[in-house]
Amino acid sequence: MPLVSLFGWKWRLVLSALLFCAVIFELDAQEQRTTPGRTAKPSKPKLGKSTNKGVRAVMAKPKMKATPAAQAQTFLTQVLNRGKFKKVGETISVQSGDTLELRCRGKPVQWSVPPYLEEDDDGRLSMVQHERYGSLTLVNTTGADTGGYTCYPMYCEDTDCRKEYNKAVKVFVFFPDPQELFVPSSDYYEVIQLRTNWPTILPCQVTSPEAKVSLHREFPPVEVAVDGTEISFNVKKGFTIHRPRPYHAGALYCVASLGNLRQSSTKYMLIYVNYPMAPPAPVIQASSSSVVVGENLLVSCTVMGEQDTFIEFNWEYPGQQIGRPLYTQETISAVSAGAARQQSQSVLLVDEVRDVDQGMYTCTAHNLQGAKSVSTTIKVVPKGKPKKP
Ligand SMILES: *[C@@H]1O[C@H](CO)[C@@H](O)[C@H](O)[C@H]1NC(C)=O
Fold first, then answer.
1. CA of 140 to the centre of ligand 1 (A)
2. Could you give the 3-state DSSP secondary structure of residue 100?
3. Rg of the chain's alpha carbons, rounded to an integer?
4. pLDDT in tens, 88-140
5. Whose CA is closest to atom 14 on ligand 1?
6. DSSP-assigned letters across all residues of 19-55
7. 354 SS3 class
8. 213 exposed, middle or buried (CB, 10 Å; 0-12, 13-18, 19+)?
C-alpha cells in the first residue's frame, strides 16, 4: 500500500471536484464569512440520554415494504386528549408545543425517530414498553421534530430479539410551527453533489403539509420550474432533481408560504460532478527497464478517460522504504477522438539512480468509481558494465 494516504482519497477527489466547479456560480463571499451556524435548537441542554443507537443504521437501509398482511397485524395509534385513540395513516400533524403520543402493538417494540432527535435527545422523548404495546411520547414539540417515526415489533426467542422489518409501521409527523415553516437546519448553506443521472434531493422539509413550497435560483434570481418529471416535490422529502445535468448547478433555495408567512430555506449549493463511467485503466511505462547507476529514470502512468473526471495517482517504489523522496509531475491534456476524452498522466522522476532503486514500481490511479494499480520492474546495473540490450 502506498505511504501516501489511501484513506481520504475519495474526499480529496470530491474536494478537487468542488474546487473545480466553484467557478460555476458565484458564492456570496460576505454571506460565507458570516455563516451564523444556526442550530436547530440552540439553547436546549443535552442530557445525553440517547435511545436506540442502532436504529439509524436501520433507517439508512432500503425501506422494507410492508406486505398488506403485515400491515394488518401491526398498527400505530395516536393517543389524543382525554384518552381518545386514533389509528394513524401515512402522515399526521401535531401542533408544535403539543405532545405526540404513539402506541404500537407488540411485545416488545423498538422505535426509530428522526436522526436529529436521536442525537439531541434532551429528555423530551420517552419510550415505554407495556404489557401488550410500546408507547412513544414526545413533549414540548417544535417544528424541528418533523419527520418519520417508525415502530418495529420485535421477535424474541428467550432473550434474543430481532426487529421484524416486514412488520414495521411508519408515520410521518408534521409539527406545524407558526414561526418556522421549514425544519430548521444547523447549516447556513448545504453543499450538495449533483451526480450525473443520479437523483438528488434538496431536503427543504416543511413543518406543515399545508405550506406551499417553490424552488428558486439565486443567480439569476428566478423561480425554478417544477414539472413533476425533471424536478418534483414531495412534502415529506423536499425537491428531487431526477436526472441532474450541469445546468442544474448553482445556488438554490426553497420558499414556503402559509397564510401571511413566507420564509426561505437554507441555501443549497448544487455542484455538478462528472462521475466517470468506470474505474480508471492506467498504463505504466518506464524510460528503460534497466538503468545504469547514476542515470535518471522516468516512470509514467497514463490514464485515458472521460473529460472533466478527476484522477488521483499514488506511487509505490523501492526507494520509499529508505525515504527516497518522490518527484512526480502530473498533467492533464485533452484528446479529441470523437467523444471528448482526456489523458491524465503522472510521471515519477528518479534522479541519479542508485542500487536501492531496483525493484517494482507501482502506480495506483483513483477516480470516483474506484482504483486500479499497475506495476513495472526496474533493474539497476552497476556502472561500467554494459547495459542489457
Ligand atoms: C416542557 O415545557 C415546560 C414548560 O416550559 C417545562 O416546565 C418542562 O420542563 C418541559 N419538559 C421537558 C421534558 O423539557
1. 6
2. strand
3. 29
4. 888 999 999 999 999 998 888 999 999 888 887 688 999 999 988 999 999 99
5. 124
6. HHHGGGS---HHHHHT-----SSTTPPP------TTH
7. coil
8. buried
Of residues 389, 218, 363, 168, the one with CA closest to residue 289: 389
pTM of the model as a whole? 0.62
Stretch(es) of the chain classified as CATH 2.60.40.10: 73-174, 189-273, 283-381
Residue entry with cell 529508505? 322
Phi-psi region of 48 (alpha: psi -120 to 50; beta: other; left: phi over 0): left
Nearest ligand 1 atom to the CA of 44 is 14
Check if the beta carbon of residue 186 is closer than 8 Å to that of residue 40.
yes
| Domain at 283-381, CATH from 2.60.40.10, 2.120.10.30, 2.40.50.90, 1.10.1740.10 | 2.60.40.10
Closest residue by CA, ligand 1 atom 12: 124
267: how many CB neighbours lie within 10 A of its CB?
Answer: 21
167 lines ligand 1 (CB under 6 A): no
Residue that the C-alpha cell 532503486 belongs to: 357
Pocket probe for ligand 1: among 100, 121, 140, 141, the residue whose CB has the most ligand atoms within 8 Å is 140
CATH of 189-273, picked from 3.40.50.1370, 2.60.40.10, 3.30.450.40, 1.10.10.10, is 2.60.40.10
Pairing of strands 200-202, 238-241: antiparallel
Ligand 1: does its nearest atom lie under 6 Å from the Cβ of 97?
Answer: no
- The domain 73-174 is placed in CATH, from the list 2.170.130.30, 1.10.3720.10, 2.60.40.10, 3.50.50.60, at 2.60.40.10
Q: What is the pLDDT of residues 141-196, one digit of tens each?
A: 999 999 999 999 888 888 888 888 888 899 999 999 989 999 988 788 899 999 87
Cα separation, 114 vs 146, whole angstroms: 8
